[in-house]
Specification:
Strand order of the largest sheet: 1-2
Distance between the termini: 71 Å
Number of helices: 7
Number of strands: 2
Order of helices and strands: HHHEEHHHH
Helix content: 55-70%
Number of domains: 2
CATH architecture of the largest domain: Orthogonal Bundle
Structural class: mainly alpha
CATH topology of the largest domain: Rna Polymerase Sigma Factor, Chain: A
CATH class of the largest domain: Mainly Alpha
């Protein structure tokens, strides 16, 4: 049976605190069970939601319904709304997963390696001669054949092959100095 919950606490801080103590004693166990059922297997989430529910009650303690049943219904409504907010919040952000060390990590793709590769490739291409760079870009970036590259650059196919050979050898040499593995 619920404990007799406080009357209007007015503006007295001691009365507000006493009201919250009584409200907690009267509703916390039931709210915790309710929240645990909403989040099975995650009692720590239920505890967090109970704390958020109590915090919202503390902020509105002067406006709570006067009767015991009204306060109980109000607390369960707030707990339900807090639970809905938590679910919506989880749906709006990436999932969190435990890493090797048990630390939370965001389950989003790591683009760092791709960005570093692009930067290294850009720096490497910038070190090539203009002619070598033009051949590599035509062959590998625009996906043209040797014949198409020769026509677009106005040079012979043998020259395209030769420039591409020396350009790739230069790129491999530069990259091997950066990452010998």
């Amino acid at each position: 049976m619920p404990v007799a919950v406080c009357r209007k606490p007015e503006a007295d801080p001691a009365a507000r605190e006493q009201c919250m103590r009584e409200l907690y004693a009267a509703t916390a166990a039931q709210l915790r069970r309710y929240l645990v059922r909403l989040f099975p297997g995650r009692p720590e989430d239920a505890e967090d939601l109970l704390q958020e529910t109590m915090l919202r009650a503390w902020r509105r303690v002067d406006d709570l319904p006067a009767d015991v049943d009204g306060r109980r219904r109000w607390m369960f409504t707030v707990a339900r709304n807090v639970a809905i907010d938590a679910v919506r919040s989880r749906m709006a952000r990436p999932a969190e997963v435990y890493g090797e060390l048990g630390v939370f990590a965001l389950a989003v793709p790591d683009e760092t390696d791709r960005l570093v590769d692009r930067q290294v490739l850009g720096d490497t291409l910038a070190r090539l001669t203009e002619r070598q760079r033009a051949v590599l870009v035509s062959l590998y970036w625009t996906d043209r054949s040797v014949a198409e590259t020769a026509v677009s650059l106005g040079i012979r196919e043998g020259t395209v092959r030769s420039r591409s050979h020396y350009a790739l050898r230069t790129v491999r040499g530069m990259l091997s100095r950066i990452d010998p593995g």
